[in-house]
Structure formats: structure tokens, C-alpha cells
Write a structure and sequence with these properties.
Blueprint (H helix, E strand, L loop, with lengths): L3 H8 L14 H6 L4 H10 L2 H5 L14 H4 L1 H16 L12 H5 L5 H13 L8 H15 L15 E8 L6 E4 L4 E4 L14 E9 L4 E7 L6 E10 L5 E13 L4 E7 L4 E9 L3 E8 L6 E7 L3
Antiparallel strand pairs: 1-4, 1-11, 2-3, 3-4, 4-5, 5-6, 6-7, 7-8, 7-9, 9-10, 10-11
Helix pairs in contact: 8-9
Length: 305
């Protein structure tokens, strides 16, 4: 970091006194990469032992200053070529060069998430998604999941807290609207009650507390503070990438949970829910019921209260 004054001095060519020709942009030009061959020579000169041993190779690739962001495929190809020249085709696994997909994990993830959230808004959280939309979602999710920064994501403390659902491809999810930040779904009242027939919707969130192995899906309506909530027991699998899930109970209440109206046990569902992307504000969860082939994806964002 530098001050504005320091930055201006970096470019300054004016000198006090009479010798106004003393200023020069040579160093600035070299720092900005105007002569990349000169920068390579400087680099080599700094490692005379490596040069003497014939262990140093240099190559000019597209890019200006942060090559791994600008030209990952070119960098992967150059590294792969170096490994083949140094170790031959049978290079030991520990010496294998990074591939383009692994380098992709280093790229900025913000634009990928922004595109996914725009898709969530455009498709009403998945409710209005066409086949073309779902294919685009699959492509964006592949980009995002390739950059998952959290190993053993299903056991990470990052999961704890409340999350807004903003997209799902599950047609039984009941979603009716999303702006890419939050979503609303049908609020189903208790069967055989007047509330069951009301056309109510509510904000859908997920609440996670791994310290007690509990997951809750909540649909909260503004009308009378009506709330439907499903509770499940969750336990991370041995590899830490998924949850073993078992539904436990369903409750329906008013006044934001303070006035219980109906509660029932809801055992019978068991599934494996895999967390394919987790960071501080975004989750991607893929769910599958045990014994079923269908897999459903849920995209969630950290709730803002």
C-alpha cells in the first residue's frame, strides 16, 4: 500500500535545482512490463545457481501482472510442458503440473455467484425455469463447485446459522418467487383446517446448528406471523462431504412461532444431502432421498436480518 503522495512520486520526473533532465521513466517502464525480456533477464540474474545448474526455464505468456487470473490455460500448458521436459512422460504424481480445472479454483468467484443469483431471479427461484435455463444453471454450478474453498464442507462451522433459499430445481419445492436474494414458497397449513385452503406464501429459509445435529426448513409468512417448520436430524458422513438426514417433525404456528397450532412427527424420510460449495455467504446443496435416483439442487445465501 502507498499514499497518494507516494504514488505520484513514483511517476515524478521533476527534480529540484537546475538539472531538469535528470528525471527518467526507465524504472517505471520496467515495473509496468514495457520490456518483458528485460524483466526475465533480471529474474534469471537473481538466481545464478539455478541458471548454472540448468534448472531454470522462463517463458513469456499472455498477461500483464497477475497471470494466473488472466491466462490460466496458457499457464497450465507451460507448467505441463516443463514437467514433461524435466521428468518425462512418466512423471511422479507429486510432480504433476496443475491442470486448467485446478487453476480455475484460483479465479475470482464473485462473477460466477453473481451470474447464478441473476439466474435465480430470472427463473423465479426455479419455478419458471425452462430447459435452457436449467442447462445454464448446471453450467454455472459446475464453474462454482470447481472452486469450492471448503474441504469437508458438510462438517464446516460455516454452515451454522440461517440461510435464504434463492433457487431450487425441485418441482415439489413450492417456490413461487425469488429476486436472487430471497425466495417465497407456498405456505401449506395443517390438513383439514381453514388455513390449508388459503393462498399464502412465505419466505423460505434453512437454519443449521451442527452442534446439536439439527436442520430446520422454515416458511415464514407475514400474515399473522404464520410459520411452517420442518425439523430434521443431520450427521456428517465419514468423508465430511454430505449429511445423513432423517426427518423428525413438522410444526405449524402463528405469531412467528409463539403460538403453536399443529405439530406432528414426520419420520420416514431419509436421505443424503451433499454440500458441493460452501463459503461464508453462499451454499450449494444437492439432496437425494435414499433409494431414489433423482437429485435436487438448492442454492442458498446467508440470511440478512
Amino acid at each position: 500500500r502507498t499514499s497518494i503522495r507516494g504514488l505520484l512520486r513514483w511517476f515524478a520526473v521533476w527534480r529540484s535545482g537546475r538539472d531538469q533532465g535528470a528525471g527518467s521513466f526507465a524504472q517505471v517502464g520496467r515495473d509496468l512490463g514495457l520490456d518483458p525480456e528485460a524483466k526475465l533477464r533480471d529474474y534469471e540474474a537473481a538466481m545464478p545457481a539455478a541458471v548454472a545448474a540448468g534448472a531454470l526455464e522462463t517463458s513469456l505468456l499472455p498477461g500483464w501482472n497477475v497471470l494466473v487470473w488472466e491466462s490460466p490455460a496458457d499457464l497450465a500448458a507451460a507448467l505441463s510442458g516443463f514437467v514433461r521436459r524435466r521428468f518425462g512422460d512418466a512423471a511422479p504424481p507429486s510432480a504433476a503440473a496443475p491442470t486448467a480445472p485446478s487453476l480455475r479454483s484460483l479465479l475470482p468467484v464473485g462473477p460466477v455467484k453473481a451470474r447464478l443469483f441473476r439466474l435465480a431471479a430470472r427463473t423465479a427461484g426455479g419455478a419458471a425455469a425452462t430447459a435452457a435455463d436449467l442447462e445454464e444453471v448446471r453450467e454455472v454450478l459446475a464453474e462454482l463447485e470447481a472452486r469450492n474453498p471448503t474441504p469437508r464442507a458438510a462438517s464446516s462451522a460455516l454452515l451454522d446459522g440461517e440461510w435464504d433459499q434463492c433457487f431450487t430445481n425441485n418441482p415439489a419445492g413450492g417456490v413461487v418467487w425469488s429476486d436472487g436474494r430471497t425466495a417465497r414458497r407456498k405456505l401449506l397449513g395443517p390438513p383439514r383446517s381453514p388455513l390449508a385452503a388459503l393462498p399464502l406464501t412465505g419466505r423460505v429459509t434453512q437454519l443449521v446448528d451442527l452442534s446439536v445435529g439439527e436442520y430446520r426448513q422454515r416458511v415464514q409468512s407475514r400474515a399473522l406471523g404464520l410459520r411452517a417448520e420442518l425439523r430434521a436430524a443431520v450427521a456428517p458422513t465419514e468423508d465430511g462431504e454430505a449429511w445423513e438426514v432423517a426427518f423428525r417433525s413438522f410444526t405449524f404456528s402463528a405469531a412467528a412461532g409463539r403460538l403453536p397450532l399443529r405439530a406432528r412427527e414426520t419420520s420416514g424420510y431419509e436421505g443424503v444431502w451433499r454440500h458441493s460449495y460452501v463459503d461464508a455467504d453462499t451454499r450449494v446443496m444437492r439432496t437425494r432421498k435414499k433409494g431414489a435416483d433423482d437429485e435436487w439442487v438448492f442454492v442458498l445465501r446467508r440470511a440478512v436480518t
